[in-house]
Design goal:
This is YceI family protein. It holds the Pfam family YceI. It is built from one helix and eleven strands. It has about 180 residues and is mostly beta strands. It has one domain: Lipocalin. An eight-stranded antiparallel barrel has the order 1-4-5-7-8-9-10-11. The radius of gyration is 17 Å and the shape is elongated.
């Protein structure tokens, strides 16, 4: 069976995250510049080869000072580690519309295996004749597992920045000719 290449459609994708601020509200952010590819056997996504990278300099939380801090050595250290990467080691079908992805997430030079549920929208043809597929990924990671340790204690107890990062990723891919 011929392999099929799929490229990300950045106008219909979003790499989002949320982190608790002062232990009671979420701050949302996203990465604006990223690349992703999928290679499948025909249109079968079981065992697909999936690779993703995001430019750390593109982190955006709608606050320039906070974004600068996130790019600094306290967090992502964009100067020495300009990208975060993910390479799938497994993409398995659970049932119709539901997959599980496992792979190596590399942030700030630290690589760890992670597993997330994936909602698979199926394949469709858009009004312009492009064959597309949609994937939604939600999951959680602990930022300290990747050396993103900075924090500040609050006088009232607790910390300024939560350790748990919630991921909310919407991906649309276009089949390549």
């Amino acid at each position: 069976m011929a392999t099929t290449k799929w490229s990300i459609d950045p106008t219909h994708s979003e790499i989002g995250f949320k982190v608790k601020h002062m232990m009671f509200t979420n701050v949302s952010g996203k990465f604006g510049t990223y690349e992703a590819t999928i290679t499948t056997d025909g249109d079968n996504f079981e065992n697909a080869a999936i690779e993703f990278s995001a430019d750390i300099a593109s982190v955006d939380t709608a606050n320039a000072d906070r974004d600068g801090h996130l790019r600094s050595g306290d967090f992502f250290d964009a100067e020495n580690h300009p990208k975060l990467t993910f390479k799938a080691t497994s993409f398995k079908k659970i049932n119709e519309g539901s997959y599980e992805i496992t792979g190596d997430l590399n942030i700030k030079g630290v690589s760890k295996s992670v597993t997330f549920p994936v909602e698979y929208s199926g394949i469709l043809t858009d009004p312009w004749g492009n064959t597309k597929v949609g994937l939604s990924i939600e999951g959680k990671i602990n930022r300290k597992d990747w050396g993103l340790n900075w924090n500040s204690a609050l006088e009232t107890g607790g910390v300024l920045v939560g350790e748990e990062v919630k991921l909310n990723i919407e991906l649309q891919f276009v089949k390549q000719a």
